Amino acid sequence: MSNLRIFAMNHKKISSLHINNMCSSKIRASLKRLRLHVLLGRNYSSLPGLIGNDIKSLHSIINPPIAKIRNIGIMAHIDAGKTTTTERILYYSGYTRSLGDVDDGDTVTDFMAQERERGITIQSAAVTFDWKGYRINLIDTPGHVDFTLEVERCLRVLDGAVAVFDASAGVEAQTLTVWRQADKHKIPRICFLNKMDKIGASFNYAVESIREKLKAKPLLLQLPIGEGKTFKGVVDVVSKEKLLWNPNSDDGKDFERKPLLEMSDPELLKEITEARNALIEQVADLDDEFADLVLGEFSENFDLLPAEKLQTAVHRVTLAQTAVPVLCGSALKNKGVQPLLDAITMYLPSPEERNYEFLQWYKGDLCALAFKVLHDKQRGPLVFMRIYSGMIKPQLAIHNINGNCTERISRLLLPFADHHVEIPSLTAGNIALTVGLKHTATGDTIVSSKSSALAACRRAEREGEKKHRQNSEAERLLLAGVEIPEPVFFCTIEPPSMAKQPDLDHALKCLQREDPSLKVKLDPDSGQTILCGMGELHIEIIHDRIKREYGLETYLGPLQVAYRETILNSVRATDTLDRTLGDRRHLVTVELEAKSLETSSLLPVIEYAASVAEDLSQASREAIENGLHSACLQGPLLGFPIQDVAITLHSLVIHPGTSTTMISACVSRCLQKALKKADKQILEPLMNLEVTMTRDYLSPVLADLAQRRGNIQEIQTRQDNKVIIGFVPLAEIMGYSTVLRTLTSGSATFALELSNYQAMNPQDQSTLLSQRSGLS
């Protein structure tokens, strides 16, 4: 590649990226040094970083200044238009040459076969592109509740987010979930009210629902011109300009920005002036620096306040998360996306504006988080990484703290959804794609070496001592990963023949590295492989992927609900284990008490009587806890895990020379004996359910939910629709989507989310027990 020339032309004139002879010797030398490989499989309108005819230095293309980087995610309820918005963003930034459509199955970020068939996003895809000199790493996340972990995993590495809303529906069930996740990770957000062209779209209703349901303060930076079929553009409140899209333009690139004038738009100008004054007052209440400026220089006339000052103040308020800027548009009709891109660069933070506490301990050494693993047939595992500090290069040896192993990165890529560009290095603030890491899994912390990690740990401990913190907290901050929710569904999976079992095990191992919310375990009684997942769709997609990607025709057993068990009263039990193995006698006598807990706890709460705790060694204590935990994995009724139980150890006599394995076995057996004597209760998963339908279908849907043991909390009116909010046991909701479609002629939608586990009533419990024992 020594004699190369980059012809960067306007993307309207060029159909693919041509690399021929190089004109400048300086660029030739840098290109030789960098060996920039560009994949030519897709029609890139320009190399990332080349806008129009502007050829930049290659270093600024690959490693832009950190202040010019934006790591953002697009999050929303299912079907609010996240993927369509992403598609338009890529088109206007010059990355794609044609507008992809979810319905046609040709979008960039939904590249899995299942995503294109179903028109939903399952995995989050990372895309890198440039906009007006800014590098934007954008992640399109799923909105479906079964893939909540995908959203959680990506929010962990973002600096800012765009929350997309359906303007006709406002805040929906899954919007609340992703909003809470973003609150947990303290991510600044801007809101985009999409689908302003849809019949029933209401700007004011959507803004009010953000205020009421999300308890956020919306800052109206834009107002729509028309709603529904009459929607034709937006008004920029900050600069008092109207943006009108040319109705004859196919792709929405052609729009004009006009200042509002007293002559042509007197009523609109009056409305926008009032909105701008209200915005200035709102921002002044939240930002002291801006308040001083407004009260000092511009108290007489807000119109004189420059737009730049207001924009800077909105940026500060967004960073502080005291309010959220609101914009509007229609991604499908190509309106309002360019101003959204401007708002992303203007109001969302760069990596250096986010305060990550653990960075001070690394002192510029490499610190990165692996937030996603994909399996590529040619290249093996591809690991997405967010670099917090330091630099990554190919052939670099890195240390994985979670796995406590050292690996080598063979190649480094920039992610363009399913197409990748090879690069020579990447600095802090960027999102990279690495090849060659065989053992790294989702949520692992990556550092340059073991000594670097130990040095960071020592600094964290010193800092902790100054602030009177415990070391464990310093460690937890050091290895911040992703919380994995408990699965609620399980079913058996079998290969077509026993010869294919190793292939199935390999496929499941790869899929587990990609998706930690998928759990795989072996049934000790039948020897069957059991899949545990987040929902019907989740398990269905896994089954489909095993077939497509690994060529295995597997058989799934019937879906079953993951119940739990508990006890209702207090019981005592005593057990003695006396075995002689070889010339050693193992003798343990245990007396313990099990009782129910008032509060919910997945693991047993273990207490020791004062006489036992005094002379108990650490090894014996660990053996006891292992035995108790293993006994709680299988309850006495149906073999489901036991929860909400407190166990007190009243006496423990151990013969000298008894092994810890025997102590565990005796304690475990004694607890099982106690649990069998107790009054037992089955707990079933209870789901939050939200069903949206037109008024005509309210009665049949309510009647159906009553048959499903549903508990209706409230019925809301959302414009012309009715929304039922309530709780339904998971066992009753299997296959509900098909029934709901039939009842409402395909017009209703529903969203589910695990609420908690609750006790079954005696009648339902006895029915379940007789079903399981084969008596009914």
UniProtKB/TrEMBL annotation:
Q: Which UniProt keywords apply?
A: GTP-binding, Mitochondrion, Nucleotide-binding, Protein biosynthesis
Molecular-function GO terms, alphabetical: GTP binding; GTPase activity
Predominantly, its location class is: mitochondrion
Pfam families from the entry?
EF-G_D2 (PF22042), EFG_C (PF00679), EFG_III (PF14492), EFG_IV (PF03764), GTP_EFTU (PF00009)
Annotated Tr-type G domain residues:
67-352
InterPro entries referenced in this protein's UniProt entry, alphabetically: EF-G-like_DII (IPR053905), EFG2 (IPR030851), EFG_II (IPR041095), EFG_III (IPR009022), EFG_III/V (IPR035647), EFG_V (IPR035649), EFG_V-like (IPR000640), G_TR_CS (IPR031157)
Q: Name one GO cellular component term.
A: mitochondrial matrix
Q: Where are the transmembrane segments?
A: none
Q: Mind telling me which SUPFAM superfamilies this protein's record contains?
A: EF-G C-terminal domain-like, P-loop containing nucleoside triphosphate hydrolases, Ribosomal protein S5 domain 2-like, Translation proteins
Domain of life of the source: Eukaryota
Q: Which reaction does it catalyse?
A: GTP + H2O = GDP + phosphate + H(+)
Q: Which GO terms describe its biological process?
A: mitochondrial translation; ribosome disassembly
| Subcellular localization | Mitochondrion
Question: By its UniProt entry, which SMART domains does this protein fall under?
Answer: EFG_C, EFG_IV
Q: Which residues bind GTP?
A: 76-83, 140-144, 194-197
NCBIfam families in the record, alphabetically? small_GTP
* Role noted for this protein: Mitochondrial GTPase that mediates the disassembly of ribosomes from messenger RNA at the termination of mitochondrial protein biosynthesis. Acts in collaboration with MRRF. GTP hydrolysis follows the ribosome disassembly and probably occurs on the ribosome large subunit. Not involved in the GTP-dependent ribosomal translocation step during translation elongation.
Family listed: Belongs to the TRAFAC class translation factor GTPase superfamily. Classic translation factor GTPase family. EF-G/EF-2 subfamily.
Q: What is this protein called?
A: Ribosome-releasing factor 2, mitochondrial
Q: Which organism is it from?
A: Balaenoptera acutorostrata
